[in-house]
Amino acid sequence: MKIVIGILFGFIFGAAYGQNNKAAPNIIIIFTDDQGYNDLGCYDSPNIKTPNLDRMAANGMRFTNFYVTSSVCSPSRASLLTGRLPARNGVGGVLVPGQTGLAPSEITIAEMLKDKGYKSACYGKWHLGDNREYLPTQQGFDEYFGIPYSNDMYISSGQPFSAAIQFNNDYTIQKAQAEQLFVQQNLKNRSVITRSDLKDKVPLFLNDSIIEYPANQATLSQRYFDKAIQFIKNAKKDPFFLFITPAMPHIPLFASEKFINKSKGGLYGDAVEEIDFNVGRLLDYLRKNQLEKNTLVIFTSDNGPWLEKKEDAGSALPFRGGKFTTYEGGVRMPCIVQWPGVIPAGKVSNQLVSSLDIFPTIAGYLNVSLAASEIDGFDISSVLESKDGSKRQYILYSTNKEITGIRLGDWKYLVRSGERNAPANSSPELYNLTTDKNESTSLISEYPEKAKELAALIQKLKKGIN
User: Fold this and answer.
1) Domain limits for position 442
2) N or C: which terminus of the chain has fewer CB atoms within 10 Å of its end residue's CB?
3) Would the pTM count as exceeding 0.85?
4) In contact, 324 and 57? CB cutoff 8 Å
């Protein structure tokens, strides 16, 4: 049983939404992988066409200052699901197969909603632990279908095979188990991740066992959305929560035959355009079945593009950096939110917003009381509804579990270089993001007092977190 500390669950659907005596809203979060700020049509992509996500933006709200907590996947996902920074939830870096995961004591959005009668499912990449005790079915989700970590990884030794497993590429149970044994014997050395015949072959799970190995990755984006639509059908009148997490456009890149060589953005663009097509299918289903007006849909990405992969990577323009960095390109993401009748259509918001805010905002709509001392996000319902109300004042940047930067208004301060693996003793940096959105020139020598002020604010905020 989970120990709930400082989180009190209400029993009346309240807040602004509930006071209108409407049913509990359905919730869908679509969380892509390594997709950059510039990789959607409505974010000015020159080569990637996303008409369905553009339509979603026209029907809802698009954010220009939406942040995730980390520029790598596991901590970014943990923070979204818990509303807590890596320093609190304990997930600071990329988890590899067979390692630990998000602590079972952490409360996820799915668990909060389960207490409100929701049916929940996770379809796609999980990457918060692949051993049974860390899988989505142990974190509040009723159903899981997907790969347990990044699609460039490998099978883990502790994963059970379903009796109905499908093997691909001439695999047999004996060959798969031999690979598991090799991983078990070599988990602590680099021979696992350098063995080329293991990489990029990942297991596909249904709930807590493998149903396909190696997963046919070219089919997964469509299959995730197929599952999502079927789950909605099966939910009938129960409120539902869907966490849809395509592995794309993380490398290795895949797209189904229908989308291969269709995008001017290369294979990367093919993968994104296939996701867009399936988002359109899902939105169309909601509309045709009179569910659209009672469903909150959020689309964003876990972190910025893996720029080192060149043509297989996306774009974070106009920002500097990408995945692995604390520059804007690593953590400022495209984000679109739709909820007809609640969120005004066609709005572009420049307010500071974080993935941390999703948990407490959903809680607010359902009148779930959260202890502010345990949660790092804020209820942003007033932002979503374009109403007066409190706004987020700052953004914190994290490296592993350490807070390494802050944005306050126009100013951004980093305690050390924002580059990947920057040494702890590298020089701090200060930028004005209004006049220098590309972070090209540090202003720390011109504004030492501003740097000192922001460094002191980081230390003050740390005391309330650690």
Assistant:
1) 401-463
2) N
3) yes
4) no
